[in-house]
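REQUEST ID: PR-0412
SUBMITTED BY: lab tech R.K.
PRIORITY: routine
TASK: structure prediction, single protein chain
INPUT:
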Amino acid sequence: MTSHEYDPDDNFGHAFHAQHGVDDDDALEAVAWQFLLLVNPDDEDAALQQFAAFQLALDEAGGDADPVPLLRDAIDWKAGFHVGEVDAQALMEALDELAGRWRLHIDWALDDDARELPDTSELLQTAFAQLRERHYCLWTMETGEPTLAGWITHERDMEAMQLVASALGMPARPGAG
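STATUS: complete
OUTPUT:
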């Protein structure tokens, strides 16, 4: 695949040719590449590594494979998270790791005397609100499993992410949903 530069004004028009559908391998790879650029802002090297992992997984899975879980796995603990839906500790660790990529810190406001961690939906709301204050956006995705998955993008890329997620058939939304 040729290298594609992200152009927010292009609305991904170059990703689809008039004679091809979204199922076309080249179009799928172009949209997957745009997704990876969005979840790895200002880090094309990381996007390239994750794209190589995605392509390998896609080749191994065959032509009818769903690209969404393959992309989720390619970015896991690098540019995204995928944890058990009630595993608050893993969620906090994953989000701390992702926010740390931009030298951001999420204040979980945990009471030292608390015996239990907050519910994961509370943690997602806390992370979403604090990231928005710094012009980033936390995204979550329906997995169809008892898990939570998502990533962080620049706030300015929200419309682009919605377009890309839609093109991939990815059930993603800003925040905890």
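NOTES: Confidence is low (pLDDT under 50) at residues 8-22.
REVIEWED BY: pending
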